[in-house]
Write a structure and sequence with these properties.
Elements: H1 2-21, E1 25-30, E2 46-51, E3 58-59, E4 64-66, E5 75-76, E6 81-82, E7 87-92, E8 104-105, E9 118-120
Parallel strand pairs: 7-8
Antiparallel strand pairs: 1-2, 2-7, 3-6, 4-5, 4-9
Length: 126
């Protein structure tokens, strides 16, 4: 249990550091979405929820989402700005849609058995 407390404390410290800097964070994701929420095409695609917990707007231009630790820029965001407190759903559907103002879709899906998932800042910091 002490290891879990240390890991929990580390995760909380990391989250608080991101909030203090105004960096967006992954708050939720769903792999193997079969009936929870449908995308604009009516498909039950996997998804990732991004949240801007900061007090300032954040441009996601050149940020990336990836499911591959060896390819941190697998799917890059278009010129999208998240307002303070805003949540954004990005579909992990393999549809690769990157038009600002429309639903966003990555060029990969999520494995229901679990895998790597990261929101990556410009310059490659996950």
């Amino acid at each position: 249990m002490p290891v879990l407390r240390v890991l929990g404390a580390f995760a909380l410290a990391l989250l608080l550091a991101c909030v203090a800097r105004g960096n967006p964070v992954i708050t939720e994701f769903m792999a193997d979405n079969v009936s929870f929420i449908a995308d604009e095409d009516g498909a039950f695609s996997d998804w990732t929820e991004i949240h801007n917990p900061g007090a300032v707007a954040v441009s996601l231009n050149n940020w990336a989402l990836t499911n591959d630790a060896a390819n941190l820029t697998k799917w890059k965001f278009p010129a999208v700005t998240m307002q303070p407190g805003e949540f954004l759903i990005v579909w992990a559907s393999n549809k690769n849609k990157r038009t600002p103002g429309l639903p966003l879709h990555t060029n990969f899906s999520l494995a229901k058995s679990g895998e790597y998932l990261a929101l990556v800042q410009p310059g490659g910091t996950a």
